[in-house]
Amino acid sequence: FTASPRMDAAVAGLAIALVDDLELGRDAVPDVLTVGLSATDSIGHTLGHGGLEMCIQMAELDRTIGRLLTQLDARKLDYVVVLTADHGGLDAVERLQQQAYPRGVRGDAALGVGELAKAVGESTGIAAPSGPLLYGDGLGGDRYISRLLTSGERARVSAALVTRLKAHPQVAAVFTAKELSETPLPSASPQDWSLKDRARASFDAQRSGDVVVLLDRAVMPLPPEYRGLVATHGSPWDYDRRVPILFWRRGMAGFEQPAPIETVDIAPSLAALLKLDVTDGDFDGRCLDLDGGARNTCAEGK
Fold first, then answer.
1. What phi and psi values does residue 185 have, to the nearest 5 degrees?
2. What is the pLDDT of residue 102?
3. Lowest mean pLDDT among 170-174, 246-250, 278-282
4. Is 143 helix (H, G, I), strand (E, B) or coil?
5. pLDDT above 70 (res 293)
6. 211-215 and 141-145: which strand pairing?
7. How far apart are CA 37 and CA 58, in angstroms?
8. In this model, does residue 296 exceed pLDDT 80?
C-alpha cells in the first residue's frame, strides 16, 4: 500500500477532510497545511526511479494533486501551493548499467562499519573496551569512533580510517570533523559548491560523525547482497541534491527560474507573500520574487 499511488490518494483525501474539519482558510488568519505525498519515495526505493512503475506513479500523482486542488477550488479558498521534495535519487544500478552510466554499481561491503572497524582495529591494535570500535549506517556518510577510547587512541583510529577510506576506489572524498568544523559555510551559489562545501553544509558539530565519507558518483550506498531496496539517497551529487520547487497561486504570472535556489528560501518567500513582519536574518534563506518581476512580493512583504 505505501509503495503504490493509493497511498497518496488516501493522504490527499485526509488533507481535504482536515481542511473541512479544521475550517482552514475560512478567516483572515493564515493557515498552513503540510501534505506528505510520499509514495514516490517508497516506489523509488523499492523499484527504482526510472522504470514503468515510476512513470505510473508520476501520472497518478499528477491526478491526485489535481483532485486536491479542485476540491480547494470548490470551497472557494484563496490558497498558495508549494511543491517540492526532500531529496532526489539515483536509479537502480541494473538500469544504470543498461544505459551505460559510468560507475553505476552497488557499494563495496568493505565500506560498511563492521568491515572498517575490523580492518582499522587490526592495523592499529586498538579495540574499544566494550561495544563496536566504529558506528555508522550504510556505506557512506558519517562514521563515529567509540567514545570509550582515549583521545590519543581516537586520533590514531581516525587517521587509520581516513587513510583506508581514501585508498578505496569507490570513495570520492573523506573529511574529518575537525576539517569541516574549520571550514566556513559555503555562501556561493549551490551549483558552484565543491565536495567539501557540500559536506560542510550538512555538517553539525554536535551530531555529525568524526569522519565523513562521500562515495563516488553513481555508487549506490547499498552492498551487493542487500535485499529490500534497489535505490537510496544521501550522496553529495546533483542527482541526489537537486529537487524541483514550485510555487503556485491563482492569478500568479508563470515563469521558470533555471538558476538553482535553496529549499530554505521557501519560508521567507511565504512570509513575504503573507506580509509577515520579520527581521532580516530571521531565516536561513532569501525571499524569492514569485511574480517574475511583475510585482516584487519581497519588497511588498517588508
1. -60, 140
2. 84
3. 278-282
4. strand
5. no
6. antiparallel
7. 11
8. no
Name the average pLDDT for the chain.
Answer: 93
Residue 297 binned pLDDT confidence (cut-offs 50, 70, 90): confident
Dihedral through CA 185, CA 190, CA 194, CA 199, nearest 10?
50
- The residue behind cell 568544523 is 181
Kindly give the pairing relationship between strand 80-83 and strand 105-106: unpaired
Q: What is the pTM of this model?
A: 0.87
Distant-in-sequence contacts of 47-53, Cβ < 8 A, 24+ apart: 47/3, 47/92, 47/230, 48/91, 48/92, 48/95, 48/230, 48/231, 49/89, 49/90, 49/91, 49/92, 49/231, 50/91, 50/92, 50/95, 51/91, 51/92, 51/95
Phi, psi of 90 (to 5 degrees): -105, 140
| Nearest C-alpha neighbor of 216 from the set 200, 239, 193 | 239
**Contact (CB, 8 A) for 12 and 65:** yes
Q: CA separation (Å) from 204 to 142, 151, 184, 282?
A: 11, 20, 12, 20
> Strand 105-106 and strand 219-220: pairing?
parallel
Beta bridge partners of 135: 144
